[in-house]
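Colleagues,

For the teaching module next term, I've prepared a clean inverse folding example: a structure given as tokens, and then the sequence designed for it. I'd like students to try predicting residues themselves before seeing the answer, so please don't circulate the second half yet.
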């Protein structure tokens, strides 16, 4: 983690790979999957999206098998980021949605809002402004602690519904 925090991506990637291998040898599947997710994040930071995608592959299934919806959601979020970085926007959208659903089930409102904001940004890049507004609005609705800017954004996004009397 120190290597990651100091921006030494290659060193961090090697250490996470070593940790993953050690956990695999010890049959600690969930810990190995956690290291794979950490590796994915580091590889994305290091602009190596294809390797990041390979690192995170199927880790969500490990977490779901262990009943850990929060980590499964994080894995789907990492998958979404990796797919987006690889240029696969359709698959990235699907992964962001899976992540948001699991985060909602886990009661992680802030993480869900961040995930839906990432989905919204992706939808804007894809030329889907209405979908982007809906995603952002969904994320802001479930969040209780919002900054002033996000509270203002929530009010702005709610204007069309008010004008339509809904």
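(Answer key — instructors only)
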């Amino acid at each position: 983690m120190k290597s990651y925090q100091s921006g030494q991506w290659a060193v961090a990637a090697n250490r996470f790979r070593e940790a993953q291998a050690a956990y695999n040898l010890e049959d600690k599947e969930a810990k190995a999957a956690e290291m794979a997710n950490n590796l994915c994040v580091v590889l994305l930071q290091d602009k190596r999206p294809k390797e990041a995608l390979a690192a995170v592959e199927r880790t969500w299934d490990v977490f779901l098998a262990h009943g850990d919806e929060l980590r499964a959601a994080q894995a789907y979020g990492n998958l979404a980021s990796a797919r987006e970085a690889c240029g696969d926007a359709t698959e990235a959208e699907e992964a962001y949605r899976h992540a948001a659903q699991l985060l909602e089930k886990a009661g992680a409102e802030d993480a869900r809002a961040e995930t839906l904001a990432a989905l919204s940004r992706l939808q804007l890049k894809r030329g889907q402004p209405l979908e982007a507004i809906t995603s952002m609005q969904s994320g802001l609705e479930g969040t209780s602690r919002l900054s002033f800017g996000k509270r203002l954004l929530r009010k702005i996004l709610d204007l069309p519904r008010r004008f339509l009397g809904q």
